[in-house]
Amino acid sequence: MTNDKLPSRNENFAEWYNQLVIKAQLADYAPVRGCMVVRPYGWALWENIQQALDKRFKATGHVNAAFPLLIPMSFLEKEKEHVEGFSPELAVVTIGGGERLEEPLVVRPTSETIIGYMYSKWIKSYRDLPVLINQWGNVVRWEMRTKLFLRTLEFYWQEGHTAHATAEEAEQETLQMLDVYRDFAVNEAAVPVIPGFKTESEKFAGAVHSTTIEAMMGDKRALQSGTSHFLGQNFAKAFDIQYLDRNNELQHVWTTSWGLSTRFIGAIIMTHGDDQGLVLPPRLAPTQIVIVPIYRNDEEKSKVLPVVKQVRAELVDHQRALRVHLDTRDEVTPGYKFNDWEMRGIPLRVEIGPKDVANNTVAFARRDMPGKAGKTFIPRDQVAIHAGEILDQIQDSLFNRALEFRNANTHEPKDYAEFQEIVQNGWAYTWFCNRTECEDRIKADTKATARCIPLEQPGGEGKCISCGQTAPVKVYFAKAY
């Protein structure tokens, strides 16, 4: 890793992000345009995200399965709205084994169609319902503008697909999984999100309606961080997924789909990062604590290292099994190590030198509070207790800081002129008539889009910020990734 200084977030947020992903060794550019290689450090972060989500999925009764990467083109054509929504993004295989295929195959952009086909074979009776399946995998969408983690041709994600006997059950599932995403974002990633419905023009292709969690990034743009869709009976009818109900009558099932991808790594970077590099929430950080021994010669080394190893053992044996790394590199200076681990966003750094050994203390340095403000000296026999407490404090601090930032940069405009000004550098929360023509006007005038119609509404009605007509809901608008 290099210790080259990052660009300032305020001066060039996009370049700050691009360089940080590379310098922190999260990912790198692949030889295929728009693809990425996720490096071990980035994959370790993704594994922690997977574990946090998978635990929640299984607690709500879902099971994992795997479906093929290749889908017959005819499958996508069965659901008209779905194929129209994805057709510009499809990667199509026309030759296999050196011969032209009778039917082209699509590299899955999402799996509703292949899973719908399989559900039509598996579901015959009301006794077979509900079907609650999740898949961890990768998908391909031929994006024209790409950015590591945020938008790549190939990305990794989970996609849940469920089938239900009634619309009410499927609607409940859609909102339940949206809340799982909200809970994960808030409590694991320390990213404050707003759960809500997408407008008609922003919904998933083939859905009756889509829900989303929206987060504000450090440049005040919005990021759609996870989505959950009520598909009604659209895919059930396209793939003839029917079951005999309790009255022995044939019915179509009601389905949902929901997903969260490696894009969320981008959300963590852009929500918490600073000019020194990553700032990772402790609950997801691949390494929660790094121990840096400090010594100038072999004599000091012989005094410091035994204490360092003992401290490491106590932290690893902590009741929460803290993730600890001991930096024993001799070829670089302690200062280099400090910068290195700050770039990687390690939540807590433990420094132990000869003076600390003599004083029976260790130094703690918090990543969320750079400099002297985040440095404290802890009695040697209280290291494990204080480490767990400080990690919890860092987790809370990151969430509260991000929430304060979002609140400070979200405004309620009094008129359309003020609205146009707000969305150039922040979020607007405003009454909206929910008509597509007003949404199109706003997008044309400002390049901002309706991010979500939040689940929590003030009640009553107001005047649409665009046309002045009666508006039933308040909506968040912002420029987005």
What's the arrangement of secondary structure elements?
Blueprint: H1 13-23, E1 27-29, E2 36-38, H2 40-59, E3 63-64, E4 70-72, H3 73-78, H4 80-86, E5 91-96, E6 99-107, H5 112-122, E7 131-140, E8 154-164, H6 167-187, E9 194-197, E10 209-216, E11 222-232, H7 234-238, E12 242-244, E13 250-252, E14 254-261, H8 263-272, E15 289-293, H9 298-316, E16 324-326, H10 334-344, E17 348-352, H11 354-359, E18 361-366, E19 375-379, H12 383-408, E20 410-411, H13 416-422, E21 427-432, H14 436-446, E22 449-454, E23 462-463, E24 470-471, E25 473-478
Parallel strand pairs: 3-7, 15-16, 15-17, 20-21
Antiparallel strand pairs: 1-2, 4-6, 5-6, 7-8, 8-14, 9-10, 9-22, 10-11, 11-14, 12-13, 17-18, 18-19, 21-25, 22-25, 23-24
Helix pairs in contact: 2-6
Notes on the protein architecture:
This protein is of the alpha+beta class and 481 residues long. 36% of the residues lie in helices and 27% in strands. The protein folds into three domains: 13-272, Bira Bifunctional Protein, Domain 2 (BirA Bifunctional Protein, domain 2), CATH 3.30.930.10; 289-390, Rossmann fold, CATH 3.40.50; 410-478, C-terminal domain of ProRS (Translation Initiation Factor IF3). The protein contains 14 helices and 25 strands. The strands form six sheets. The protein has an eleven-stranded mixed β-sheet, with helices on both faces. It has a five-stranded mixed β-sheet with strand order 16-15-17-18-19, sandwiched between helices. A three-stranded antiparallel β-sheet has the order 4-6-5. A hairpin with a 2-residue loop joins strand 5 and strand 6 (99-107). The relative contact order is 0.11. The mean pLDDT is 96.
